[in-house]
C-alpha cells in the first residue's frame, strides 16, 4: 500500500508539535529545581549513600531509547514492506518521548527530592558544615535535587514500552492468536530490558525505589496513550494496524460509514510471521 500520510499540513503540524516538545524538554533540563528543606534526620538516613558511577550511563540510555524507533521502522518498512506502519510508529514514539520528557522534568523541578547520594554531593569530603550549607559542585548539587521521578526509568519504559506494544499488535498476542509462549516472550522482552535499566538506578544509589516505580509507571502510561492515538486496540481484529490505514479502508455499507471494506482482511495478517495471513486454526 502506498504512503497515505504524505506531505501535508497535518504532517507539518505533527512535526512542529514534536519540535516544540523537544525544545521545551531541552530548556527544562537546564532549569534549577525547587530547593526543598532537608532535615538533618532525612539527610543522615535517606541521603547518605555513597556516590557511584551509573551502571547505565546517559549515553547508553539514549542509544537504547533512540535505536528502538529506527529498528521498528526499518522492520516495518524493510521486512514487512509497510511504509505506513514505518511512519506511524515513528510518529507515535516521538510524541510519547516528547510528552514523557516534559512530564518527567516538570515533576523533577517541582518536587525537588534529593537523591540517595545527596549528602556526598553536598559535602564531597564527608564533613557537613554547622549551617548545613553545601560545599560541593553547584551542578552536582542541582542534579542531586532531581530524584523524583527517575528519568532513566520513564525514558526506558516509554521507548521500550512502545516497542512492546508494537510487537504485541503485530503478532496479535492479545486477539485471536493467544496460547503461544513465543509471542508472549517476544512482547515481554523489551519490558524486561526496560526493567533492568530502571532497577540499575537503585543499585548505583541514584534514585529511591519510589522514584523508579513512579518513573516506570509514567513512561509506560504515556507510551500506551500515544500508541492508541495511532493504532487500533490490541484486542481488536485490527491490532497492529495504524488508524490511517484502517480508516482509509472504511466504506459505506447499508448506509453505515464505519463498515470495514472487503479487502481489510488482508491487513489482518501478522507481518512479523513472514507477512502472510495464517490459517485461522494455527
Topology:
Blueprint lengths: L8 H21 L10 H6 L12 H22 L3 H29 L6 H5 L15 H7 L6 H21 L9 H23 L5 H22 L12 H6 L1 E4 L2 E5 L22
Antiparallel strand pairs: 1-2
Helix pairs in contact: 1-4, 3-4, 3-7, 4-7, 4-9, 7-8, 7-9, 8-9
Question: What does this 3D model show about the protein?
Answer:
The structure is a single chain. The chain has 282 residues and is mainly alpha-helical. Helices cover 57% and strands 3% of the residues. The protein is built from ten helices and two strands; from the N terminus they run H-H-H-H-H-H-H-H-H-H-E-E. It has a two-stranded antiparallel ribbon with strand order 1-2. A hairpin with a 2-residue loop joins strand 1 and strand 2. Helix 1 runs parallel beside helix 4, helix 4 runs antiparallel to helix 9 and helix 8 runs antiparallel to helix 9. The chain is elongated. The two termini are 26 Å apart. The C terminus is likely disordered.
Summarize the structure.
With 282 residues, the protein is mainly α. It has 10 helices and 2 strands; from the N terminus they run ααααααααααββ.
Tell the overall outline: elongated
Question: Secondary-structure element sequence?
Answer: HHHHHHHHHHEE
How many helices? The count is 10
Kindly report the spatial arrangement of strands forming the biggest sheet.
Answer: 1-2
Percentage of residues assigned to helices: 55-70%
How many β-strands, per DSSP? 2
How large, in whole angstroms, is the Cα Rg?
23 Å
Query: What's the N-to-C terminus distance?
Result: 26 Å
Structural class: mainly alpha
Strand content: under 5%
Mean pLDDT: 85
Let me know the largest β-sheet.
2 strands, antiparallel
Spans of at least 5 consecutive residues with low confidence: 251-271, 276-282
Amino acid at each position: 500500500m502506498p504512503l497515505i500520510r504524505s506531505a501535508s499540513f497535518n504532517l507539518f503540524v505533527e512535526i512542529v508539535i514534536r519540535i516544540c516538545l523537544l525544545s521545551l524538554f531541552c530548556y527544562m533540563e537546564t532549569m534549577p529545581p525547587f530547593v526543598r528543606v532537608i532535615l538533618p534526620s532525612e539527610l543522615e538516613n535517606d541521603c547518605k549513600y555513597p556516590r557511584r558511577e551509573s551502571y547505565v550511563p546517559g549515553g547508553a540510555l539514549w542509544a537504547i531509547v533512540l535505536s528502538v524507533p529506527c529498528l521498528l521502522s526499518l522492520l516495518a518498512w524493510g521486512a514487512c514492506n509497510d511504509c505506513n506502519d514505518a511512519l506511524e510508529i515513528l510518529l507515535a514514539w516521538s510524541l510519547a518521548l516528547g510528552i514523557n520528557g516534559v512530564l518527567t522534568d516538570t515533576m523533577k523541578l517541582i518536587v525537588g527530592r534529593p537523591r540517595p547520594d545527596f549528602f556526598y554531593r553536598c559535602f564531597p569530603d564527608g564533613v557537613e558544615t554547622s549551617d548545613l550549607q553545601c560545599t560541593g559542585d553547584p551542578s552536582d548539587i542541582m542534579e542531586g535535587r532531581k530524584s523524583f521521578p527517575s528519568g532513566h526509568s520513564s525514558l526506558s519504559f516509554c521507548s521500550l514500552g512502545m516497542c512492546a506494544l508494537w510487537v504485541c499488535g503485530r503478532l496479535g498476542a492479545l486477539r485471536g492468536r493467544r496460547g503461544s509462549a513465543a509471542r508472549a516472550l517476544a512482547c515481554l522482552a523489551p519490558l524486561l530490558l526496560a526493567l533492568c535499566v530502571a532497577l540499575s538506578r537503585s543499585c548505583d544509589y541514584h534514585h529511591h525505589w519510589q522514584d523508579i516505580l513512579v518513573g516506570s509507571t509514567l513512561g509506560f502510561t504515556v507510551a500506551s496513550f500515544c500508541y492508541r492515538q495511532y493504532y487500533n486496540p490490541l484486542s481488536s481484529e485490527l491490532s497492529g494496524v495504524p488508524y490511517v490505514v484502517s480508516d482509509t479502508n472504511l466504506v459505506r455499507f447499508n448506509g453505515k460509514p464505519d463498515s470495514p471494506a472487503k479487502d481489510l482482511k488482508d491487513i489482518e495478517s501478522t507481518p512479523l510471521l513472514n507477512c502472510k495471513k495464517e490459517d485461522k486454526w494455527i
